[in-house]
Structure formats: C-alpha cells, structure tokens
C-alpha cells in the first residue's frame, strides 16, 4: 500500500521474489496471436473492412467530402498559384542536375502532383523535383551514357547531340520507373518502416553532401565550361580540377548574370524568412528574377551577342508515353533502390512535420504507394524521380495551403506552361536556372551547424553525420549512402556490444540504487555486489559482459573454483594417507610438503577442476576463507551475494543464454548466491522454454526490484540459523518512509530480530 504524506510516501509490502509475487497475484491467461491468426484475420472479409481499405487506398475520399469551401478555397487558390510558379522554375532548374533538357523538368512538376492528389495522405507537402534526388538520377544518367557522351563530344553534328539527349532522357525515365516500382512494392508489402534505418543525423549529413554536389555540378553552367562527366569515387574533386584548369575560358556574361541572380535571391529569401510573420505571402523572387532575366536576354539577344547558353526549344504539349528500357534495369537496380529510399525518407520527414503541426494522421505505407505510382507515371512520360522540396512545401504551407487542392492547382499552373506559354522561357539563360537551383540550397548548406549541436548532445550522432557527409562527398551519393547506412548500423552494434556497465550502491539509505561512482554518500551491504547491464545481451557481447562483471567484483569465479578444486584434491590425498588431522583450532598436518604438480593438474584434469565442489566424502567442512594446511593457497573472497540488474536487458539469444548459465553456475559453485532483478514475465518464460533452469540454476533467483533482493539477502544472512518456512519468509515485510529529496526518515524491518541497513 502507498500512502502519500506531503512530499513523502510510505510503502509496506512483503519482500517479493518472482515466484512469491506470482503466488499472491495471479496473471491473466492471454491468447497471443500466432502468424496463422494474423493470416486468417487478413483474409476475413466484411463491409467495414472493405470500406476501410478503400479509404486507406484513396485518402481523398475521406478529406474531400469534409472540405470547407468558404474557409479554405481562397487560401488554396493563392497557395496553388504561388507554389505552381515556384514548381515551374524548380522543374527547369533541377532538370540541369539530371543533365537532360530543362523542358522535361516540367513533367516532374506535374505528374507526381496529380497522382499524389488522389493517393497521398499529407495535405501540405508539394510533391515534385527535389535537388538531391535530381543529383542522384543525374549521376546514374552520366554513368550509363558516358560512352555515348564521349562520342558526341568528338562529333559536332547536331543530330548526334539530339540522340544523346534522348538517350539521357530515356535512362532518367527508366531509373524513375524502377525506383517507383520499388516504392510501390514496399508500400504493398507494408514495409514502410525501412525508413527508420535512416536517422535524422544520417539524412542531414547526406543532404548536406548532396547540396555540395549540386553546388559543384552547377558551376559549369555558371562559368559556361565544358566539363567531362565523372561518376566514379572522388568524382567531385575531378570535376573541380576540370573547372579550375579551364577557368580562363569562363563566359563573363553568364558568370555576372548568375552572380547577380544568386545575390538577389539570397537577400530576398533572407527578408522572407526574417519578416515571414508580417508578410502576407513570401516575395516570389524566383519568378520575378526569371521574368526579368528572360526579358533582358531576349531584348539584348544575349545568345548571339555574348554566346550564352539558353533553355532553347520548349516543346509544347506532352509526348506520348514510352516503355522503360529494360536493359538499363540491370545496371541501375542499386541506384534505383537508393533513390527510392531517399525520396521516401525526405518526403515522409517533411510530411511528418506538417502532420504533427496540424494534427492529422499520416500513413507511411500509403505514402510509398502514392510516391511509387507518381514516379511510374512520371517516368513513363519522360520525367525524372520526384520527392518534395523543402522550400516549395514551405511556400505551399506559408501561403495558406490547407489541403492538396493547393497542390492540384499548382499542377494546373505547370500544365498551362507545358501546353501554352512554355515558349516564352526559351531565351532564359541556363546560368540563371543554375543560380536559382543554388538559391534553394541555403537551408541544406546551413546544416553544417548541426555538427556543433550534435557534438554537445550525442557524440555517436555527430560521428554519423560526419562519416555520412565524407562518404557521400568522396564515394558519390549512391555508394556514400550505402556506406553511411552500414556505418550507422555498425554504431548500433558498438553501442550494444560494448555497453557502459556499472556497479550500483544504495543512495540515501532508501530503496534508490545508483552508480556508486556518481555519489559521495553511498551504502553497500557487506559481501553484496550489484551489477547493472544497460543493453540487450546477445552472442556479440556476452564475453564483454562476463569480463565487465569480473572487473566489477574483482575476481574470476572460474579461477576461484579451479583453485578450490586443486586444493580439495590435495586435502583428500593428505586425509587418505592419514597425514591430516582436524582439531577445533584448525588443521594439523604431519608432513612438511606434498609433492604435486599444479601444471599436471591444469593440463590433464581441467574438466574435473570445473565441476562443482563436493566435500561429502570428507568427515569435516572446509572454510575456504580460513587457513588451509601446508602451502595450499586459495584466494579468499568476501563476496557472498551478487545481484544482476537486468531492467534494461530487453532480450537474450540462445548463445548468450548458454554464457549466462555458465556464469551463474560458476558463482554458485563457489558459494556466491546470484539474484536477477528487473526482468519481465516474458523474459523468465523464454528461459523456461529454452530449458535454462536445472538443479544448480533455478527460477527462485528472480526478484522484482533491487531492494527486494537486498532485503532478502540481509534477512537470509541474519537468520540463516532460523528454521523459517517459505511462507514465513514471504511474510517478512519492510516499511520505510522516504522524502522526495532522497533521505530516509525511518525504516524498520518487521522480522524477529533487528536488521541494520
């Protein structure tokens, strides 16, 4: 019973072992579903289940009927127009990252939005081109088409260049379809949880490295230099070397234009960010600068006067869908999987932020289906992989977007450009698009500040960020992501394989037990050690656990056991030869020395030395902490009880069970009682199923708390001569009054004789 008294509480209950608690409090018989039960439930049909499946596959059917036209429509219209204008420019700009003609970027800004409108569960993200994903697709396109690219550079025929562009478009579309198929399969198989293997630190480090790749890739458009494609590891350094080796060939008009655009975009974006609470809508600086740059380029004929590169021919309307190139599938399966995972991880992360902010549910598996089908449609119409851009989603939400109606309207703006007014963008310089692409990287590049924050909070997360960034920079985005995930999983192994074990002690003379190194006023019962392991115990760390336990108690139980068995063999020889007599004062030996070889015992009878100590054949008892005859020396130990705190041990595997049982047997054989606390019932049931218990190790070693085990030990040692039945022992209670500052006001053990604590 717990009675609150001000800032104190009083507890009075029996000292409970697991068995005693089970006798007093009966458990419910619960039926745990088997795999067959889940299969049967999944195959069961009902009208309610059919309705639930339909609503989950088409989320629009749940939110569209509840749409508030008067309250939301105007906001969605404003948001849709603003987002659509941004999507047009980002589609053109990010197409340069894929190394395909800019016009194909508009398809990526249109098709995924239409599909997501019907199938997506987030109401605020803007689906479409994302610079990191575009960069990853571009790296694949460059690698697959590198040979054809070399041939095109040697031939000045324009038809050859057109053929190369078409080949690049087909490769990008094929990779997009394949990544969409992977996302769709993952969604159907309900394995959207795979995103949990991408931590925030890993995503932050990876997107920052991708932003650096984007920055380097756009330099050739800003300087208007001919840079050969590189896709192997260290490619970023090769690109930089190629750029700076021909820097004297820079087109000054392109460089000046891009720098002016970049400066203005950065300044206005900073104003938008600083005064976002006062501005009704963010200043559409990308649109303004695009209109100005296009007009200036057309009016002053930059293409012919300064030899700048422009967007060029913008084909009106849509091209007919094409089947993906199956031959490319084999070469790009690994890259497509990485693109699928990164695209989903980024989109789901952004969607989670808005779902928490506006309090509506988000379905990860349905998001995979929506993104997967969107990429399949986009790739079929010659677009490239999509996700969500942070800046574009921010525009949609900050301009008042309430639902995906805003996204649908943004797609209509893109449609108008594709069908009717795309030709107006033909004089636009590619260097302007490169500057607009770089203007959207500020948020990702500012993630460098994460290093200081992560270092203060968690060294492992900081290390993951740094390693991810370096791997993605040095190895490239595809191999870098794989290496980063492998390293992240390795850190998890390190954390569990080498846990920070500790020795606990009583603090404040209460029922509170903490690391003895952290407090001045501690109390340790004589002959009792409390050892805590804060991680699962499995095959990889059972040896580490055993070594840490030995270090904590100061001796190896196996070594003590072998020493005692060696000593017992010598004592038996002396006793059989009549050379040893026992008196009330101790042993009397009538021989000065016993010729025996320890090495011989070690080498030939090692298995016998590991067996339990059996003194039943001797007419006397041996005190192993007392004086032994002759030169027989056995290390003396003061430990009589060991408590293992397993409150943080979530599981044991079969290998660790064998190791743990061996440890318990070794301590038991040297007369050290071992108690395990903090485990749940499933833990004990698993040990029972695995036949863990026997005559030496039984299930009576489990106690509810550390304090239960400590009180049981104190009572056992103080009343070892008393003939108490198990029921009498269970009725021994402890009362203590504790204040919230940790001090013990009073304590009294309700037992026949006073026990000091």
From TrEMBL:
Xref: InterPro entries: S04_transporter_CS, SLC26A/SulP_dom, SLC26A/SulP_fam, STAS_dom, STAS_dom_sf
CDD domains in UniProt: STAS_SulP_like_sulfate_transporter (cd07042)
GO cellular component, one term: membrane
Bilayer topology: Multi-pass membrane protein
Keywords linked to the UniProt accession: Membrane, Transmembrane, Transmembrane helix
Keyword hit for Transmembrane: yes
A GO molecular-function annotation: secondary active sulfate transmembrane transporter activity
Subcellular location(s) of the protein: Membrane
Organism domain of life: Eukaryota
Residue spans crossing the bilayer: 77-98, 104-121, 169-198, 252-269, 281-300, 337-356, 368-385, 405-425, 462-490
Domain STAS: start-end pairs: 518-713
Name this polypeptide is given: Chloride anion exchanger
Organismal lineage: Eukaryota, Metazoa, Chordata, Craniata, Vertebrata
